[in-house]
Amino acid sequence: MSKTTVSRRGVLKTGAVAGAGLAAPKLLLADGHAYTNAPTGSTVTLGFNVPQTGPYADEGNDELLAQQLAVEHLNGEGDGGCLNTFTSKALQGNGILGKKVEFVTGDTQTKSDAARASAKSMIEKDGAVMINGGSSSGVAVAVQGLCQEAGVIFMAGLTHANDTTGKDRKANGFRHFFNAYMSGAALAPVLAAEMGTERRAYHLTADYNWGWTQEESIVASTEAMGWETVNTVKTPLASTDFSSYIAPVLNSGADVLVLNHYGGNMVNSLTNAIQFGLLDKVVNNKDFKIVVPLYSELMAAGAGENIKGVLGSMNWNWQLQDAGTKAFVKSFGEKYGRPPSNSAQTCYAQVLLYADACERAGTFNPCGVVEALEGYEFDGLGNGKTLYRADDHQCFKDVLVVRGAQNPTNAYDTLEIVEVTPVEQVTYTPDHPMFAGGDLGTCNPGA
Amino acid sequence: MLGLNSKDFRLFLVVIGLTLFAPVLLNPFPTESGLAQFNAGYPDLMQRFVIFGIFAIGFNILFGLTGYLSFGHAAFLGVGSYAAVWMFKLLSYNVLPAIALSVIVAAIFSLAIGFVSLRRSGIYFSILTLAFAQMSFALAYSVLSNPKFNLTNGETGLQVYNDDPQIFHSDRLPDLPHLFGLSMRASTDIALGPWTFTLNAGYYLSAVFMVAAFYIAIRLFRSPFGMMLRAIKTNQTRLNYTGLNSRPYTLAAFVISGAYAGLAGGLLAAMDPLAGAERMQWTASGEVVLMTILGGAGTLIGPILGSGLIKYFENIFSKINDDVLHSWFAFMPDGLEDAMVFIVHPFVGKGWHLTLGIVFMLVVIFLPGGLVEGGQRLWRWITGANRKKSDDQDTKHAPHAAE
User: Fold this and answer.
1) Disulfide-capable partner of B106 in A194, A288, B80, B335 (CB 3.0 to 4.6 Å)?
2) B158: which chain A residues are within 8 Å (Cβ-Cβ)?
3) Care to name a GO molecular-function term for this sequence (chain B) (predicted)?
């Protein structure tokens, strides 16, 4: 360094500046609201945090549309949708607790960091009392942690990994979506009925947290009914060509291929598998089969012809015939001209449930809302009878087993419902090994 | 003063002033007004401004001075974050040990990567650093997060759990990162008429670190060591022919800039105790290159301006949705309103990348020196100093660039 002369005056000045700098934080004391972002005016703000760019942008967009629809219905606009079929009648169509519902949106980019930044800006800048939506388990867990720290309610959107309400469960977070364990439990009996109990399965698994928990769940439930697992192979998430992973399947002696992939991964791996003619093969005197444990409408559309006859599971499908589904599909269809996806339904239901919980609790205080949602049982939102379990904030309801339609009549009925698995069959104990290690903690009202 | 010449000291004071009053300067619009959408003075974004400012200052020490373009700097940021969160998990939520470890770990990590990568220069160096960073990303995303050896927690990101040891944690302390009990999330709202300004503890801590980082960067730029780095940028071959071994200098610059990135990563984790693998992805590495070029590579304040601009776009423009647009153009007749929304729609909300891309193109084409050059041109135009062209290189660092 060129100049390093020390003068008395220099030292004094430096000391004064440093002292002022150190003293500054002492002036900052937390101020005392009852809870974070208590709404003071005539409106209340909800935060809709969905992927608008990146691999799940289409799903995020669908979630956003559904959430806007939910806000309309809460404010008494439109046809009211599921407010008419919901078993709780606390909601009057005059907003929440008399306050008009407004919302802000943000882009998660399907990255934990960006999602947290976006959620933080909603909480810190826009005064959101609740964050809803998302389309990936990593993001869900990250934002759930943030909401717990910040003292707002989090409703998870599309997240299927066991960890969201397993080892990463949080008191301020709730999940309406089903999880990998439930997929396994719902699929296994259908697989046994369709393919027999003497199958040899080969797993291709996306190499990240969700893939592992799904693989673990499916392996456990299929082995329990007598299947043998030949091999489980992890594929990098960024792969677009799975040929090199498919070829060994043919020589492994396996007669079922389980694709623990989601989104673009699944579309590509399934297409590769079809190109290799796997479905035309006969191995061990049995027809070769492919299973995709987690389906979405988007993936079905992307995979086109290839999904015909392929089994999988879903949280909800617009072709269900209950009153809640019909009401929701009708208002969504009339507004946007197409049926909603299952992630859209999840986000829609979550907004209504949150609003309803506030009404029943008589407050927006997260602790009141948590209390109102814990152990809450309801019907009429499209999933049949549903329970929000208090122990882990996981929702328990029927799970759909679906199959790629053989003869779709239009672009939207690419999947057909094979079976509605009753909730008893997919229920597990809160301390189930696949969900162990979590700690809800206590609800945090923030501020 | 402080070993700076008067010009640098003025610039230093300007930076201190800007960071000190950022909560006011960034909230120019009253809270209830329609323009409040453009306010950036909330804690999370202000923290990001200064933290990515540190990141870009550090990157500029390498890229701006030696001309070595590292395409893998995000790896050091990520490593710093992971180190910090591990300190939270093992020791306590106190941010100081976390930040200290994150700097040390990032420095060691950059020493290893720099030792290998710096054997090549130019594009080969860039590709090597990119490869190492992508390798670190893949390690963090999958390899090091398997259930048997879970160092990074993969896609979900490393978090602090209730059952972590946290041996120095006590019930009196907040369950959030804190500085001897002062929570990083502690904020005070000051209402001034229709305006609300939020003073946040975490922001001011980051700001102190940024001011310190900036001071060190000025001293580096003006030191004989900085001169040597500039010589490397100008003509490394000639330097080698004079008998000087330039590699220790480049390696030192690389490690210093890696340590800066680690500091930024540690601070990110201190503001928000989560470390995600995406922090190490090549897009994150590219972002800091953009920040530096956008602001003005090789200038002192440029990287800070560039990082501020990019973070502003990412966080403010991405939140303007169609409803907001409709409310802006509500005064127009229906048909015209829809038409305006249709025109503006691709550039805001999810289209913020597009707007940023256009700004970047314009800057690179018309202001090769970045925003700093824009500021200088504006200043010269205002003062009418265009005629007397300064031959002093240091005009680049004049304080007006901060505006």
Assistant:
1) B80
2) none
3) branched-chain amino acid transmembrane transporter activity
Prediction pTM value: 0.86
**Helix (H) and strand (E) counts for chain A?**
13, 17
Flag whether A27 is in a domain: no
Which ranges in A225-339 belong to alpha helices (H)? Answer: 243-251, 264-275, 297-303, 323-336
B163 found inside a domain = yes
Is the predicted pLDDT of residue A24 greater than 60, yes or no? no
Chain B hits for A441, CB-CB cut-off 8 Å, are 162
A32 assigned to some structural domain = no
**Is A156 found in the same domain as A74?**
yes
Nearest by Cα to A384 from A435, A339, A424 = A424
How many structural domains compose chain A? 2
The rounded distance, in Å, linking the Cα atoms of B241 and B247 is: 13
- Give the pLDDT confidence score for residue B401 in this predicted structure: 39
Q: Is the residue at A421 inside a domain? A: no
Give the ipTM. 0.83
Mean pLDDT over B231-253 rounds to 94
Please indicate whether, in this complex, the C-beta atoms of A439 and B163 are within 8 angstroms of each other: yes
Domain housing A70: 43-178+318-397
Cβ distance B48 to A13 less than 8 Å, yes or no, reads: no
H-state helical runs in A126-263: 137-150, 180-195, 209-224, 243-251
CB atoms B319 and A52 under 8 Å: no
Residues of chain A contacting B222 with CB distance shorter than 8 Å: 1-2
Residues A111, B204: C-beta atoms closer than 8 Å: no
Q: Which residues of A touch B147 (CB under 8 A)?
A: 212
Total of domains in chain B? 1
- Nearest chain B Cα distance for residue A241, angstroms: 18
- Strands A399-404, A415-421: pairing is antiparallel
Range of the domain at B78: 18-280
Interface mutation vs chain B, best among A59, A100, A120, most B CBs within 10 Å: A120
B402 pLDDT band, cuts 50/70/90, is very low
Q: For residue A22, is it within any domain?
A: no
Same domain, A208 and A241: yes
